[in-house]
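Thread: quick sanity check before group meeting

JM: Hey all, I'm pulling together slides for Thursday and realized we never actually wrote out the predicted structure for the chain we discussed last week. Dropping the sequence here so it's in one place. If anyone has concerns about the input, flag it before I start.
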Amino acid sequence: MTWFARLFATAPIRAAVALQVLAYVLTFLVTIVTLLVFRSAEWWVPIVTGELSVLGLSLVLIARLGWWRRAGITGGTFASAGLWVGALLPGLAAAATYGLVFGPRAAPPAVWLVAIVVGLSEEVMNRGLILSALVPRGTIPGVVLSSALFGLSHLTNVLDAPLVAVAAQVFGATCNGALWAAVRTRGASIWLLVIGHALVDLADVYFGYRLDDATAQAVGLEIGIGIATALVAVAVLVRRRTGDDGSPAVATSL
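JM (edit): ok, ran it. Output follows.
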C-alpha cells in the first residue's frame, strides 16, 4: 500500500485512474462476498459494505500520505455561505426541478443510510484524495480530470440500464463533480461536500432521475441541470482568488 500512496505524489494522474479501477473491482468483490455470506440480506447491505470498503481504502492512502488536512478531512471551512450554496446547489436543483415535473415518490428509510455512506465514500476518494493529488498540476486541470473520472465511474450502470439514460447520468455526475471540486478548491471542508452529495442522492431517490426512465423529458432534464451546474462551476473557478493579504493566490495544493 505504501508504493500506491507514493504513486499519488509522483504520478497523480496514473494513480487517480488506477484508484478508480481498483475501487470498482473492490466494490464488486465485496458485494459478491456479502451476497454469498448474507444470502437474505436487505438490498442496501451489499451497497453499504462495498462503499465502506472503498472508503477504507481511501482513508488508508490518505493516512499513508499524511493528507488529512490537505484532503479536507481535518481542514477546510463550513463558514462561507457561498460554499454552502455551491455544495447544496446540485441537490436543491434536482429536487426542485424533478419535484415539479414528476412529483415526490415513496422510498424506504434505508436510502438515507445509503446516501450518507455513498456520499462519504465518493467524496473522500474523489474530492479528497484524487483532487488533492491533481491540483498541484493546476487547479482547472485537476478539477476537470477528477470530475471526468467521477462521471465515468457511473458507466458501470450500463450493465442494467439503457445506454442513453446512463450517458445522461455520466454527464450529470461529471458536472456535479466539477462544481463540488471547484467549491473544494475554495477551501470547503470535505464534510460540506459529503452533505451536498448525499442531498443529490436523496433528491434522485425521492424526486429525480431514474436510470429506468430513458424518455426524452427525463434525459433532457438531467442534461439541462448538468449544464447549469457546470456553468456555476466555471463561475466559481474563474472568480478571483485572494490570499490572506488580499493578493492573488495560486492553488498549488488544497
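AS: nice. Residues 69-238 form one domain. Residues 115 and 202 are 6 Å apart (CA to CA).
JM: adding both to the slides.
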